[in-house]
Design brief:
The chain is of the alpha/beta class and about 350 residues long. Helix content is about 45%, strand content about 15%.
């Protein structure tokens, strides 16, 4: 059993030291934040559940702890590649609200089944994640409360709540680093719409940020280059399914532009290899989406010009985030996950219930 020092929450996910990966990248240290032990097996529960419950509380004027007693809650609606929708579905189950999650047809059926198991409706949309985003927004205009993790509105309060939920992870990381007396010089963070990368940039501002995206579905890098959100055309097909997004989040982009991140685009082969390396050399079972940060680190570390541009040296300490469990490593226990999610609500929103 892991025993954390008093200043580190006992519920914090592990921060693993991975010397084999550090040697492979030619850096001093590689630390990996492992998010697979969160309720439902990924970090999205921190943002989607927080934002959904706060949205219901705002709309109804009811404290979060009292939502379930109402019996007349509006429908929660969101688009997802799978994990954000699962987090919103969990919030709906906890609050006693109906919910519909909009998924595009490339989302694996296994991810949809986890959402359906919570009693939530799924609506399938032709096209990409961005088509699902558009369809969910249109549906919410007619009936429901939209809980997006991306928005064209730079001041969208719900997207900001999503990112504030993700900041729980950086609070844990800072406490864990302080407890072992380590500082991080670099962080390689995967980006879908950019929300996680923005939260990491804000929470760990002293660590140089590299944003890692699949070559075939990179929307944050072109948005940073253009200075505004742009929509990327094409199928966005990538093995990193959770990163298959064609349009960056405007609230996230506004934050990222302040931190001047290094955009890193990686191949499909590099994404697949990174997942294998994390498993074989660090014992961390995740997906190509979850291992994208490592793919980015190795891409930069092994190219002299990029390595120099990033400021990587033999003494650098690099932080990665394994954002989700590999499906083969997930033990489905809805009751246990919901109980853990309720405990997480009490910890994340202690003054809002």
């Amino acid at each position: 059993m892991t025993h954390f020092p008093p200043q580190v929450p006992a519920t914090a996910t592990a921060l693993a030291d991975c010397p084999s990966l550090a040697q492979r990248a030619g850096v001093g240290r590689v630390l990996v934040k492992i998010e697979s032990s969160r309720p439902f097996g990924n970090f999205k529960i921190l943002g989607g559940m927080t934002a959904a419950l706060r949205a219901l509380a705002r709309v109804t004027g009811t404290p979060i702890a009292q939502l379930r007693k109402r019996g007349d809650l509006p429908r929660l609606i969101c688009a997802s590649d799978g994990n954000h929708g699962l987090a919103v579905a969990a919030a709906a189950k906890i609050a006693g609200a109906p919910a519909t999650i909009y998924l595009h047809h490339s989302v694996p059926r296994s991810r949809a089944e986890r959402i359906l198991a919570l009693g939530t409706s799924v609506y399938w949309v032709a096209g990409t994640y961005d088509n699902a985003v558009d369809a969910a927004a249109e549906a919410a205009r007619v009936d429901g409360v939209l809980v997006p993790d991306t928005s064209a509105d730079v001041n969208d309060p719900i997207v900001r709540d999503v990112m504030s939920g993700y900041a729980t992870m950086t609070s844990e990381i800072n406490a864990q680093l302080a407890a072992i007396g380590i500082t991080v010089s670099h962080q390689f963070v995967q980006a879908g719409v950019g929300g996680l990368a923005a939260a990491m940039a804000e929470g760990l501002p002293a660590a140089r940020l590299a944003i890692v995206e699949p070559e075939q579905a990179a929307c944050v890098a072109p948005a940073l280059a253009a200075g505004h959100v742009v929509r990327i055309a094409g199928s966005l097909h990538t093995c990193a399914e959770m990163l298959a997004c064609g349009e960056a989040s405007a609230p996230a982009l506004a934050i990222l532009r302040r931190h001047d991140p290094l955009p890193v685009l990686v191949s499909e082969a590099a994404l697949l290899q990174a997942a294998t390396l994390l498993h074989e050399e660090a014992g961390i079972q995740t997906t190509p989406s979850g291992s994208a940060g490592l793919a980015g680190l190795l891409h930069v570390a092994n190219k002299e010009g990029l390595r120099e541009l990033a400021g990587l040296t033999a003494s650098s300490t690099v932080l990665l985030v394994a954002t989700e469990a590999h499906p083969d490593a997930i033990v489905l226990d809805r009751a246990l996950d919901l109980a853990a999610a309720r405990s997480l609500v009490a910890r994340l929103l202690p003054d809002e219930g």
